[in-house]
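Sample A.
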Amino acid sequence: MKLRTFVPEDVSGKRVLVRVDFNVPVKNGKVTDDNRIRAHASTISKLLSAGAKVALVSHFGRPKGKPVPEMSLAHIAPDVEKVYGVKAKFVDDCISPLIRAELDSVCSNEIVLLENVRFYDEEQKNDLEFAKKLATPFEVFVMDAFSASHRADSSTSAIMTILPSYAGDVLAREAEMLGAVSSQDAKKPYVLILGGAKVSDKIGVIENLMKKVSKILIGGGMAYTFLKAKGFKIGASLCDTEKFGFACDMLESAEKLGVKIILPVDSIVAPAFDTKKEDETNIIEGNIPDGLMGLDIGPQTRNLFRKAVSEAKTVLWNGPMGVFENPIFADGTMAVGEAVAECTAGGGTTVVGGGDTAAAVIQFGLADKMSHVSTGGGASLEFCEGKELPGIKPLII
């Protein structure tokens, strides 16, 4: 999928509003992970190099339409300056009449950072009048917040009906890579790896990609719904009971289509997900006894998954294989991550969904060994479900 992107002539000397995603984790007033800020560096650099006067707008937290001091983007300003190597002039409103003056006075190594757009209730209602106020000081809009592109908000959707609009580098790259693995032309063997807690979160992806993939590897909590559907006892493991019927139907559909489903043959089990002692865990093949829950794929399953990934030319991975935040249950997710990295090195196209999966590959130091790590969890899922994303649709060429 190709999006309309800007060239220097589109933005030179113009006042440009960039929708970014600075919804980063903060603890005790300090940013603990600046990856989302870093993601936009290329877009910001290109705009400044082209002579644009740049202002950034983002949401931060869930202020529910009113100012919340703890969710002010003023807290992010020092990190923005550090990452981009520029001075960030903070304006404590996103529709202030002062914005135009600040833009007109910026130097080549300065940008303007606007206050949290979700301090206004109108933002999440995709209110056109609010979008007009947001757009008033600007001549061009650049949408670069892929992780917010599945939301029809004033700053991601309505504003594109007002200003000449372009995709930034983050958005363009996401559309290109997610488009490649969602396409009917994706190279085979194509392996879809699914994990995480709930079957319901992945139904749309499964339905959209079932006819395009060669194999589906299922781990994480959602695997136990499928194992139960196949007649296994799963103990106290997660089971998405409302989607049990879907699991049964999916297994049947896959068989008819010739798509191989690979489920765990062994699991790392324990009495609770927050178990801290390895001697409280066991490797169980087949049925899981009552009182125990599967919290990671076992060594035999890791080998099965590695083999499937090693034969792939295309891989899409969404969802961890276990409770990777607990080191005792991280080995399965790490093993899959290493296998996907090896596939990339061998010339395969590998895409990692956002959210927990992105967090895992970053934690394990594997992010730069993938073809692409998405910046959006919900957005990447909806894209791969085949849905039209309101923050992308107007930019498709």
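Sample B, a different protein:
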Amino acid sequence: MNRLPDLSSARLLVVGDVMLDRYWFGDVNRISPEAPVPVVKIERSEERPGGAANVARNAAALGAQVALLSVVGDDEAGDTLEHLLAGSGIQASLHRDPAISTTVKLRVIGRQQQLLRIDFETAPSHEVLNAKLAEFDALIDACELLILSDYGKGGLTHITAMLERARKAGKRVLVDPKGSDYTRYRGATAITPNRSELAHVVGQWRDEADLAQRAQKLRAELELEAILLTRSEEGMSLFSAAGVVHQPAQAREVFDVSGAGDTVIATLAAMLAARQDWPEAVRLANRAGGIVVGKLGTTIVTREELEAES
């Protein structure tokens, strides 16, 4: 077992789309007479912070100091999310927007398999987002590194302004991207797309050489220090001015990939804030991602778990 660096002085600010992940667990013994679908008899339920809130929880679980800035509705789901974050050691600032409903992802699980996911979501109002931008200015000086967690729910409408402010303050910024317009991430330190996300932007590559050429071209166009491509069973690839560094995947059973990207970017950010170099930070992020996919649902990797695997 290798000891992780001391992360108690690593100060992170996570900004982005938070959500409440709800899980209904039950047993499946028959097919509905009304339609060819399974009937799930619900036996228990769980609620967990998701999206940017899960990023913040993962970073805090490793020992980093974490502030979280986002928007939720003035509703029961928003109350639940605040309650869940209250005991996590995270400095959470969740702006309430009475015009929206807090994003909720409801997953129905039967026999340890996800049978259905139901999403509830609306975009936050411009006024609340402006208020969040003002608080962003107040919080940025206290952090060393920012994570912008974009789930496409509207919470990062002002991401261009945030990146500009971060650059002026001399802060490094990691972005978990979404969508096909990556120009909005220009000037970040790094982005962490998965295979399908990157292919949607640069096109499908023929081989490793073609992938490297496309990724490095995008990196230069966006003025990034690095692109970390997460590749599931193929591991991870880091593209930077120094070339390409590949981390192979760990051989383990994949149980659930939901939230794995949150764990990866949280671990990467915490290690970079602790003055680890890129290859070592990527190595540990890869290990953390390998651990979390062996768990059910949106969850965290603890410092002890990561040390045991390192």
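Observation for Sample B: Residues 126-140 form the longest helix (15 residues).
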